[in-house]
Amino acid sequence: MKKKLLSIVVAAGVILSGGEFAQASVGDNIIKTGNKYLGTPYKYGSTFGNTRTFDCSSFTSYVFAQNGITIPRTSVGQASAGVAVSKANLQKGDLIFYDTDFDGRVNHAGIYAGNGKMLNAQSNGVAYTDAFSKYYWGARYVKGRRVINQKATSSAAKKPVASKPAISSSKTKTHKVQKGDTLWGLSKKYKTSVAAIQKLNKLKSTSIKVGQVLKVR
């Protein structure tokens, strides 16, 4: 089976490293998650975790969070996350950024979907578009960033194994919500992700209340 796969890859004239295969695997999962929200209406300033509407960066941050990758909420913040990747080396799952009003600042973020396409939340809702169209996006393109880190790719590269039992309660840490706490802040404090905290506590949104006790690990 391995020889057959190698033959196919070589025949296509492409040889990928283990890390590149892993990047592709995680990238595929990110695109699959984003596809669930195709057609969702656009609303500027939509809050993180709200899936009824999205703006460009609430969409990207939410989709990545659902795949265990925490990135900043805003397009400006996301444009500094991860590592730079050239336009020629973009891979599925990379973030791509634009300056739509030519004021020198990033103001739009999307997810590179491969084959020159971008999956993003734009004025007509979540949709695919030509990432480098000469009539619009091409002239406004700024840069690409890769936030699928080594930890994520290493995990994707491993052979799937049976699910492990949940961590025993004796080893689970808890946090009592204080005034000013947010899931974003707690994910940073406890070195986890917003999605992980939501799953651990069966939260359907990012809203938390003062005095609420949350499992954080």
TrEMBL record:
<dbReference type="InterPro" id="IPR038765">
    <property type="entry name" value="Papain-like_cys_pep_sf"/>
</dbReference>
<protein>
    <submittedName>
        <fullName>C40 family peptidase</fullName>
    </submittedName>
</protein>
<keyword id="KW-0732">Signal</keyword>
<keyword id="KW-0378">Hydrolase</keyword>
<feature type="signal peptide">
    <location>
        <begin position="1"/>
        <end position="22"/>
    </location>
</feature>
<feature type="compositionally biased region" description="Low complexity">
    <location>
        <begin position="154"/>
        <end position="171"/>
    </location>
</feature>
<dbReference type="Pfam" id="PF00877">
    <property type="entry name" value="NLPC_P60"/>
</dbReference>
<dbReference type="InterPro" id="IPR036779">
    <property type="entry name" value="LysM_dom_sf"/>
</dbReference>
<keyword id="KW-0677">Repeat</keyword>
<feature type="region of interest" description="Disordered">
    <location>
        <begin position="154"/>
        <end position="174"/>
    </location>
</feature>
<dbReference type="InterPro" id="IPR000064">
    <property type="entry name" value="NLP_P60_dom"/>
</dbReference>
<dbReference type="Pfam" id="PF01476">
    <property type="entry name" value="LysM"/>
</dbReference>
<feature type="domain" description="NlpC/P60">
    <location>
        <begin position="24"/>
        <end position="148"/>
    </location>
</feature>
<keyword id="KW-0645">Protease</keyword>
<dbReference type="InterPro" id="IPR018392">
    <property type="entry name" value="LysM"/>
</dbReference>
<dbReference type="InterPro" id="IPR051202">
    <property type="entry name" value="Peptidase_C40"/>
</dbReference>
<keyword id="KW-0788">Thiol protease</keyword>
<feature type="domain" description="LysM">
    <location>
        <begin position="173"/>
        <end position="216"/>
    </location>
</feature>
<comment type="similarity">
    <text>Belongs to the peptidase C40 family.</text>
</comment>
